[in-house]
Amino acid sequence: MKVTTSKQLSNYLKDTRLSMKLSQSKVANKVGIRQDTVSSFEQNPDSTKLETLFKLLSSLNLELEVKPRASQNDSSDPSGTLSSNIDWKEDW
Q: Where is the HTH cro/C1-type domain (predicted)?
């Protein structure tokens, strides 16, 4: 699944949790966090620590894969290798 915002990611994790028929408490207990931390991530993912995200991924048996975006000029390149030759134009 392509995810470009924190809310998309939290929705995906919540959908995964629900499809596994797991409560927020069960997910939290698997990795030693509180139920309200899971709830907070699902409702307001922007304020979640990276450590918490990785704990939630682990609890749901998921992993995070990061890869270059495909070029807008060549969306037929699924590996994203062509886009790696484009210079980044924004300052963060």
A: 13-67
Q: Which residue is it, tokens 């995964």?
A: 16
Stated pTM of the model = 0.74
Find all residues with CB under 8 Å of 77, minimum gap 6, and list them.
Answer: 70, 71, 83
Q: What does the DSSP assignment read for 20-52?
A: TT--HHHHHHHHT--HHHHHHHHH-GGG--HHH
Of 75, 74, 69, nearest to 88 (Cα)? 69
Which residues does 9 contact at the CB level (< 8 Å), separation at least 6?
A: 3, 45, 53
Angle between helix 6-19 and helix 35-43 axes, rounded to 10 deg: 130
Question: What's the pLDDT band for 86 if we cut at 50, 70, 90?
Answer: low
